[in-house]
Amino acid sequence: MLFNSPLFLFVFFPCLYFIYRLSPTTWQNRILLGASLFFYSWAEPIFVFWALGSALLDWALGEVISRSTEPTVRKGALTLGVIANVALLAYFKYANFFWANFVSILKQFGLQSFSLLHVALPIAISFIVFEKITYLVDLYRKDGRPAADLLTYMLYVFYFPKLLAGPIIRYRDIDQQLRQRGVTWIDFRDGMIRFLFGLAKKVLLADHIGHLANEVFALPAKQLDMPFAWLGVLCFSAQIYFDFSGYSDMAIGLSQIFGFRLKENFRQPYTAINFTDFWRRWHISLSTWIRDYLYIPLGGNRVSLARTYFNLCLCFFLSGLWHGAAWTFIIWGLFHGTMLVADRVFWKQWQTHLPKVINVAITFLLVMISWVIFRSQSLDQIGFYLRAMFIPQSVEPTLLSVSPDIVWTLAAAYFIIFLPLLPRFEKVLAWYENLALRRTFELAGAYGLLLFALARIATFSYQSFLYFRF
User: More exposed terminus of the chain, fewer Cβ within 10 Å: N or C?
Assistant: First the structure.
């Protein structure tokens, strides 16, 4: 069930909200848990039982970790929990990839009697596994208290607004909210504004631009020229940003409606001045997770420079693998790891001699190159797409055309993206935030955008979110 589907907008969400608000406080967590399990099982009627069993095991192990005073027992429970979660992720997400590569190697030796596996990838398995590991590790570090009971822990794991594509949440960040929270009209108003603006990002910008991105990336090498190659990557760069940040906006807005405060997941990432800055702004919950649960345990900045650089590349190699079981994602991760190393070795110092707008332009160009790697379906496509971007060549005619509304939508998207770079933007923003009727204007604008979004959904149908497959 998608946030941008009529079923969610007009049936699931309104019914849940009214039942939630009319129920006693002591029942609200139960109602949210029941709704969350229904929400997830709507898309994953089989895997939901695997996820429930895994969550039950983690809760029991968490109780052992938090109650035991024996270091070996605590460490053993943590190890078992991490291994069980990684095994779950490895089977469902990586079995096809590793087996296909193994069969490919065997074929080089003339052995061709092995068939490929066909393990279905459950939606949001990566997000679920990361949060479950986070809970166990934080308990082991004594960096937070255990869930009040099994029901509370299950709600943390399956809470539907963030379930399918994040943000990745640490249990300690919403521990108190799971135990006690309040909901006011202000929460509903502000949460609804955030949700509707996120819906507009997804439906009016990401989906509209995404159609052209898909058509360009589907072109064969013999039909891909330089203008279309640049247009395609510009479209995909805007699509993935507005699609993913739109989902995060909807998740944060829905959570506020139900009394939860989730942390921000995006902060104007395309205005970053280098890759270090980019990862402080893009998918913040993932970059924070990588830092706290991979980079720092590997030694962080406390080891030699060579080991620090290796750790950065290793962390982003794993980040690429987390995004998908394909060589393209692995190369994407290593590309970002290499850029982060370059920041530390020379670029942060060199860029101090350049204007901010030049630093932003260079970073955005490199990020777009990384999106080509991310979006490509094969290593061959990466090669011919990048060649088309930078080397003029004659190609066969294509029937692909660009309608004026796509051009205007793309222009509007990049105006929104780079608006913070305009002079005096911060002062204008501060003035706007102090307007007495600001929220009234925003609410009216949000409902106006809703009408346009519904019209588009009715005309073109609704599209899945890109990060659902991760």
Answer: N
User: Looking at residues 127-149, what average pLDDT do you find?
Assistant: 93
Q: Where do the H-state alpha helices sit in 264-418?
A: 275-278, 284-290, 305-323, 327-342, 348-350, 356-375, 379-390, 404-418
Arithmetic mean of pLDDT, 31-38: 95
323 in active site: yes
Contact 16, 159 (CB under 8 A): no
As a whole number of angstroms, the distance between CA 169 and CA 286 comes to 9
C-alpha span between 174 and 470 (Å, rounded): 23
Q: Are 267 and 284 in contact (CB under 8 A)?
A: yes
Of the CA atoms within 13 Å of residue 82, those in its CB half-sphere come to 14
Taking the C-alpha atoms of residue 225 and residue 245, their distance in angstroms, rounded to an integer, is: 30
Q: With contact defined as beta carbons under 8 Å apart, do 367 and 270 qualify? A: yes
Contact 359, 270 (CB under 8 A): no
pTM for the structure as a whole:
0.92
- Per annotation, catalytic residue among 208, 211, 283, 323: 323
Tokens of 35: 């709704």
* Strand, helix or coil for residue 404: helix
